[in-house]
From TrEMBL:
GO terms for biological process: glycine biosynthetic process, by transamination of glyoxylate; L-serine biosynthetic process. It comes from the Bacteria. InterPro entries: Pser_aminoTfrase (IPR022278), Pser_aminoTfrase_methanosarc (IPR006271), PyrdxlP-dep_Trfase (IPR015424), PyrdxlP-dep_Trfase_major (IPR015421), PyrdxlP-dep_Trfase_small (IPR015422). Its cofactor is pyridoxal 5'-phosphate. Its EC number is 2.6.1.52. The keyword Amino-acid biosynthesis applies. It comes from Magnetospirillum fulvum MGU-K5. This is phosphoserine transaminase. It is an enzyme of class 2 (transferase). The keyword Amino-acid biosynthesis applies. It catalyses: O-phospho-L-serine + 2-oxoglutarate = 3-phosphooxypyruvate + L-glutamate.
Amino acid sequence: MTDFPRPDVRPNNPNFSSGPCAKRPGWTVEALANTPVGRSHRAKIGKARLEEVIDRTRAVLGIPADYRIGIVPASDTGAVEMALWSLLGARGVDALAWESFGEGWITDITKQLKLADTRLLRAGYGELPDLSQVDFDRDVVFTWNGTTAGARVPNGDWIKSDRAGLTICDATSAVFAMDLPWDKLDVVTWSWQKVLGGEGAHGMLVLSPRAVERLLTYKPAWPLPKVFRLTSGGKLSEGIFKGETINTPSMIAVEDQIDALKWAESIGGLKTLIARSEANLAVVQAWLDASDWAANLATDPKVRSCTSICIAIKAPFFAKLSAEDQAAAAKKIVSILDKEGVAFDIGAYRDAPSGLRVWGGATVETADVKALLPWLDWAFAQVKAEFEPKAA
């Protein structure tokens, strides 16, 4: 089909999905051997395991001692929903979105909670809204890293320290790979299946003292489902933040998260995790800079994600294709790589522009990223031969 040479080297681990993400290097099912299966999560051993996740998470991320950390149901989505439904309504809200998940939170705020005093700050995929326009006298809802757009806020300098409102941050594809300024964040959420490659269904919810104060002094106008309730009798449900989960957790998933956290500690903690992710971005970006057909969807280097690296197809013929053919061409690249067993699940998110998305989080080895890139060129060459005539 094409004269482009077939690569000789394959990634050792072809898992480049943006969630669930690759397991930590060297992982085998034996890591779960000590799981207390068949035991209650309320038993001493079960609660101890859950507390261990909380304690190790605090240590690795450097979360302040006066911040609460809870394990909650329904992954990052559940954690964000708990925060939105429990905390919003006391003030006006500034909601930021530059990709699919941020738009999802806007939908909840405007169509489900129906908060009238809401300002929407939006940007397209690969870009950020004007952060200088955010009003921190209001509550602010945003994603730290746009998982489906490959764009992240560059730092926390834009967030005021003397804010009156709360900052509610969906950090699911940022935590453990980017430096989060905890003093600037009042609510932070994520899921286990992202940067550390844990198993799904569980979310993490971190609350600052300011967020706890809001919970204790404000009662939403709407009823809260049981799985959203963080208070009882006017007091904080402290058990949630000590391993007493609202619903029944998977102890297998808990054991797996402990294993991932131990691995993070063993390689040097957060500093090393961030360095591994940034190294993966650097390798991909160097390739993109030299490519005649691919580019980073985020054009501003300062906002490029080091985890969800989104690749746009810039080949001239591609721009001339119909939207349907663009989607088909991108999917064909993904299909070729999947069939070869060299890259799984690297298609762009369904709502994003047609292209590719390569996960560069800390559990992905840089050597595997390097091995992947020639395969991208090889697969594109085949797709170009098939689709370029359609653009003539």
